[in-house]
Design goal:
single chain, mainly alpha, Serine Threonine Protein Phosphatase 5, Tetratricopeptide repeat, 2 domains, 10 helices, about 65% helix, about 0% strand
């Protein structure tokens, strides 16, 4: 797998497109493909219609783009996506969880997003972030986060918790019945991520 990762350096833009799904990587990869096509056509297919100097200039420009893009990719090659947590990411998750339980929403979200930048496949962190978004009333973002997690391998073990969270979001979106107020996103509710309810009761 490590060797296959480095093979992406052969095509400009491919490291970021293949390994990170980057839109900028897609643009660069397609642009290089078009430049290479033009160079091939002007050399072997339209050779009688295109001056040799123009064809040489196209090849030179294509080679320069390849060299610059490859050098840039080598210096900023995306590292492998980690699976599981190391000591640093585990400590960051603990801080994010503690901030969440203390209802410090901003600090918790900041730490969770930093953690997910370092470990994008951390399902527990994604679950906690989605729950936080629900509790602060950002229901659309929360629903999108849970649905994305449910479709990923990282979310397989969290499917029951995801289903409960999506039910809570649906309940929060329903209008109040019989004059009762709908459940507010930031009120205390049962369930949630692991350790949420017990920790909240102890803090009460």
């Amino acid at each position: 797998m490590g060797f296959a990762r480095y093979l992406t350096l052969v095509w400009p833009g491919m490291p970021w497109l293949w390994l990170r799904g980057s839109f900028a990587g897609l643009v660069l990869a397609v642009s290089f493909a078009l430049a290479l096509d033009v160079a091939v056509f002007t050399t072997w297919i339209w050779s009688e219609l295109v001056d040799f100097r123009l064809s040489l200039a196209v090849w030179t420009a294509t080679a320069i783009v390849w060299l610059i893009a490859t050098a840039s990719a080598v210096t900023g090659f995306p590292p492998p996506i980690p699976h599981g947590r190391d000591a640093a990411t585990d400590a960051l998750f603990v801080k994010a969880r503690d901030a969440y339980l203390a209802r410090d929403w901003l600090a918790a979200e900041t730490k969770l997003r930093t953690l997910l930048d370092l470990s994008p496949t951390d399902g527990e962190a994604q679950l906690l972030l989605g729950t936080l978004l629900r509790r602060v009333g950002r229901l659309d973002e929360a629903a999108a986060a849970f649905e994305t997690l449910s479709r990923s391998d990282a979310g397989a073990q969290w499917l029951p918790a995801i289903a409960r969270e999506l039910e809570r979001i649906a309940s929060a979106r329903r209008p109040a019945a019989d004059g009762d107020q709908a459940t507010l996103p930031m009120t205390r509710d049962p369930g949630g991520p692991a350790q949420e309810t017990a920790a909240q009761e102890r803090a009460a």
